[in-house]
Amino acid sequence: MTFNIEEELKKLPASPGVYLMHNSHDEIIYVGKAVSLKNRVRQYFQSSRGKTAKIQQMVHNIAWFEYILTDSEMEALVLECNLIKEHRPKYNTMLVDDKSYPYIKVTIQEDFPRILFSRDMKKDKSRYYGPYTSAGAVKDTIELLHKLFRIRTCRRNLPADIGKARPCLNYHIKQCDAPCQGYISREEYRESVQKAMDFLGGNFEPIIRSLEEQMNACAERLDFETAVTYRELLNSVKHIAQKQKITDAAGNEDRDVIAMAREKQDAVVQVFFIRSGKMIGRDHCYLTIDEDETDGHVLGEFVKQFYAGTPAIPRELFLQHPVEDEELIASWLSGKRGQKVTLRTPVKGEKARLVELAARNARLVLDQDREKLKREEVRTTGAARQLAGLLGLTDCVRMEAYDISNISGVQSVGSMVVYENGRPKRSDYRKFRIRYVEGPNDYASMEEVLTRRFTHGLEERAAGGEGGGSFDRFPDLILMDGGKGQVGIAEGVLQKLGLSIPVCGMVKDDNHRTRGLYFHNREVPLDRHGESFQLITRIQDEAHRFAIEYHRNLRGKAQIHSVLDDIEGIGPVRRKALMRHFKTIEAIREASAEELAQAPQMNARSGQAVYEFFHTREKAKEDEAPAPSPEM
After folding, report:
1. How far apart are CA 166 and CA 259, in angstroms?
2. Could you tell me the CATH superfamily of domain 5-96?
3. Which of 216-220, 324-328, 474-478 comes out lowest in average pLDDT?
4. Coil, helix or strand for 432?
5. Cα(296)–Cα(321) distance, rounded to whole angstroms?
6. Cβ of 86: how many Cβ atoms within 10 Å?
7. Which sign, positive or negative, has the C-alpha torsion 416, 419, 423, 427?
8. Residues 112 and 186 sit within 8 Å (Cβ to Cβ)
9. Can you state the percent helix, strand and coil of the chain, rounding each to 5?
10. b vs e for 190-204, b when ≥16 Cβ sit within 10 Å of the residue's Cβ?
11. Which residues, in sequence order, are CB contacts of 538 under 8 Å at separation 6+?
12. Helix (H) or strand (E) holding 447
């Protein structure tokens, strides 16, 4: 499916947000933020004048892009940081380096808490507010809180150090009540801290009114210098008072935010993934629905299908609408997670606005990408359903394909690739190094791979139950890169293990192109222009690529293997020392045990080991060599 950049540029909204650039391998190579996505993204594809070489190279590698809408540039900046840290795009290296956002930290675990500037969040029982986008504004606000509420700035261990030293300068300039001297009780001091925390929690009006009153009073007294100071502090307070819906650092929870947009028989569900209070990514799914279905029914069906296939279940789900069978679904999810999972439908406040933001992104996808999503659905899940119908199966949600790769039987390896809903699931791919088969025997190698794969699966099911391991999920269909022979091998392995899984082979023509499927002792023809044929071809190519890649890596490692690596007691240091001293393997072979022992990093024992290795092995070769022919 092609991505027409010129056409997609025309669809960009003039709204703030974050954009993600992908290369042809579907890797995220750049993440950026914009006040106007329309203006910012289009700039990359205009004249190269003024662009750095790095940006020009990045643009050259862009295959497609996507974007996430936000309510403000500040939210876009915070989201950009989270996505960069999560995906580490190639062309964002300069931005990733030690970049972090400031927090305000309140040490509530202390008897006399402090308010501090922090660049990270730790599990130290303190309360954190943020992240904020302006370090200067955070420092000004902390300074303001110290002045208004007389919060201490010292590091003294209170109450243990009360009275051990004189009060600091802040006491004398009336910016601290000197708890270090016992001049204020613990209860009174913590009451002041609570007022400061109320402000940080969003109750700004009392502080803003107080600053405005003091600023106006100073102006009336013609004390304009002090009035300017209060005005600057007031601006700082207003700056950090901007709300952030993308990040909920104070909550520090794992939650998914789910909302949808629908029109007639089409619906798009948008999911925001928030981990440890930060949004790290999103996904959207296209659904075909009946117009009469309620919103709650659609969302409920989505939740059941979506979380049935993923082990990553958060603590909370924020839903746009109440779902049907809410208690049942919550109980089911709690069982899968192993902890309580709560379903919520926020109606006001920041949580409701976060759901609204997800709904806006779902509407954007539905309006702009409806046809593309339909084509993608036909290409993936539609093709899988078509294949299931062709073979007479109930479904083909999960398919596994296998291939063997070797060169004349050397370094034989097997590959297992997994497709779910017509898409590759690379986290479930597996590699096998052939252990028990000598020579280029693809049938025996395939039998070993399948036996090991499904034996592992059965063991994991017996040990921890289904879903707890890496092999215990069995496929709905096994695809073999061959015809009757390969299918027979697979069916024999499954029969021995007591498993009943459909197996079909990919039958090739004289040009080694797939022409049909071998299933239930007959060849099932495939329409070369059909989606199921295209899916089979992609799976076959992927299994072949994965096996060859693994085999190539092993060959590369074998090529740098030294014969000295096979000698017990000779590690990398001694190997390098021997080669540096004797120059060649032949010189090492001809050296005596005494000469070897005198080399750098060597001793009598290691020298004897090297000597015996070469001479014992040469003697063994002579013993194995055939006797000369009488005629010679």
Report:
1. 59
2. GIY-YIG endonuclease (3.40.1440.10)
3. 324-328
4. strand
5. 6
6. 16
7. negative
8. yes
9. 45, 20, 35
10. bebbebbbebbeeeb
11. none
12. helix 442-464
Do strands 316-319 and 342-344 pair parallel, antiparallel, or not at all (unpaired)?
Answer: parallel
* Euclidean distance between CA atoms 332 and 326, whole angstroms: 10
Q: Which residues are CB-neighbours of 228 under 8 A, at least 6 positions away?
A: none
> 451, 432 in Cβ contact below 8 A?
no
Cβ burial of 578 (10 Å; 0-12, 13-18, 19+) is buried
Asked whether the bond before 314 is cis by omega within 30 degrees of 0, the reply is no
Domain range annotation of the chain: 5-96, 103-240, 255-390, 398-558, 563-624
Is residue 485 within 8 Å of 443, Cβ to Cβ? yes
Residue 243, pLDDT score? 43
Give the Cβ contact number of residue 619 at 10 Å.
10
* Residue among 579, 632, 570 at smallest CA distance from 606: 570
pLDDT tens readout for residues 186-243: 899 998 898 888 877 667 777 788 888 889 999 998 888 888 888 887 887 776 555 4
pLDDT bin (cut points 50, 70, 90) of residue 532 is confident
Q: How far is CA 121 from CA 103, 126, 370, 438, 461, in A?
A: 8, 9, 41, 55, 39
Residue 420: strand pairing partners: 398, 423
Nearest to 453 by CA among 431, 424, 420, 482: 431
Q: CATH: 3.30.70, 1.10.150, 3.30.420, 1.10.10. Which one for 255-390?
A: 3.30.420
CA distances from residue 187 to 112, 190, 193, 444, 588 in whole angstroms, order as listed: 9, 5, 10, 78, 81
469, two tokens = 């391991």
Tokens describing residue 358:
């997800």
Return the higher-pLDDT residue of 551 and 230: 230
**Is the model more confident about 53 or about 537?**
537
Q: Residue 164 burial by CB count (10 A; 0-12/13-18/19+): exposed, middle or buried? A: exposed
In b/e form, how buried is each residue of 215-242, taking b as 16+ CB within 10 angstroms? beebeeeeeeeebeebbebbebbebbbe
Using a cut of 0.70, tell me whether the model's pTM lies above it: no
Residue type (1 letter), 580? R
CATH number 3.30.420.340 given to 398-558: yes
Bridge partners, residue 344, by sequence: 318
β partners of residue 284: 270
Residue in this structure with the two tokens 């669809």, named with its chain if needed: 11
Residue type, 253: E
Domains 255-390 and 563-624 share a fold: no
Cα 196 from chain centre: 37
Q: Letter for the amino acid at 531? A: E
14-51 per-position pLDDT tens digit: 999 999 999 888 888 888 888 899 999 998 888 766 67
Q: Is 273 helix (H, G, I), strand (E, B) or coil?
A: strand
- Render 370-423 in DSSP notation, one character per residue: HHHHHHHHIIIIIHHHHHHHHHT-S--SEEEEEEEEEETTEEEEEEEEEEETTE
332 burial type by CB count under 10 A (0-12 exposed, 13-18 middle, 19+ buried): middle
Indicate the CATH number for domain 563-624. Answer: 1.10.150.20
